[in-house]
Amino acid sequence: MGNNTAGEVITCKAAVAWGPGQPLVMEEILVDPPQKMEVRIKVLFTSICHTDLSAWKGENESQRAYPRIFGHEASGIVESIGEGVTDLKEGDHVVPIFNGECGECEYCRCERTNMCRDYGVNPMKKAMVADGGCRFRTKETGEPIFHFLNTSTFSEFTVVESACVVKVDPGFPLEKMAMLSCGVSTGVGAAWNTADVKAGSTVAIFGLGSVGLAVAAGARARGALKIIGVDINPAKFVKAQELGITDCINPKGIETASHEEIKRLTGGGGVDYSFECTGNSAVLREAFLSTHLGWGLTVLLGVHPGPKMLPLHPMELFNGQQITGSVFGGFKGKTHLPSFAEDCMRGAVNLEEFISHELPFEKINEAFQLLQGGESLRCLMHL
């Protein structure tokens, strides 16, 4: 990529959200140069996650900010870098990540977490750390356009803090690398890092969207013996079985509770690991009850927007079952993602299986409808 645009304001197309639930508007915007410790990326591929969907709907009023550029799953090429950036350069193939890693704060230095003090996942954040400003502006009036989840990938060019950019092998196909920005890393990492699924174990997954099926792929790669998928949309079961699910349960199609059916399928004891990927507290309780007394582990992956507390009695934890959360699959982005990409390219996880649809960027509203209707896993958009 030529460096003729470095330091210049770039005019490009972006899908701008002007209000909750309103169709995204494809329009020309201005993208400012990267400031200190920032990177400007030419986005080549982006896709839509359920987090984009819920944010677009404005389900959590406290997180609303408009106009805004959503999107946090993508891949592209570094167009230019700001002052102080030393680990990236123009032309690098990169993946932006919503859960950054500065490498210097107490969180990044701690092996027990993948949080980052300043660049971790923060749905309230809508501007850049360096100066509190936005790097996107409307072309007509210069009005600021807010950022989203550290990334804002629904734009031909985006500016991202360098802590939230991961360099990948230039020999790896960028259309597949986009899958590592969120869903696949979150699900596979939950199985590998958070739960550390063992060979021969039993697993239950509640919610068979992209994250749930990534959990299945991760559990399958680890040699899980039985992987039970639970979803109220039986249309998802064919794809689920392709990705490693051995048994499927539709809660609406059985007379007993899901956890009772799971215990029946596991000989009465329950599963070693359960994963809740729906953001529904009633489902979380079913996931917890489906695990084996004494050692069962429930991993919470779904985003729970409401004020409801955990649906557990404290004494239930005395039975030996545990519950924990997982963000970005426990991966430290810059430290772990390059090697995870290599694992995927070697066949541990088939990233292509998660791309169910492909559309040009201009048809982003169609892609939203595919996801909202439960018809797609990931719709890859070409910019």
From TrEMBL:
The keyword Signal does not apply. Keywords: Metal-binding, NAD, Oxidoreductase, Zinc. This is alcohol dehydrogenase. Belongs to the zinc-containing alcohol dehydrogenase family. Class-III subfamily. It comes from Eucalyptus globulus. It catalyses: a primary alcohol + NAD(+) = an aldehyde + NADH + H(+); a secondary alcohol + NAD(+) = a ketone + NADH + H(+). Its cofactor is Zn(2+). It comes from the Eukaryota. It is an enzyme of class 1 (oxidoreductase). InterPro entries: ADH-like_C, ADH-like_N, ADH_Zn_CS, ER, GroES-like_sf, NAD(P)-bd_dom_sf. Its EC number is 1.1.1.1. One of its GO terms (molecular function) is alcohol dehydrogenase (NAD+) activity. Homodimer. Residues 21-377 form the Enoyl reductase (ER) domain. The keyword rRNA-binding does not apply.
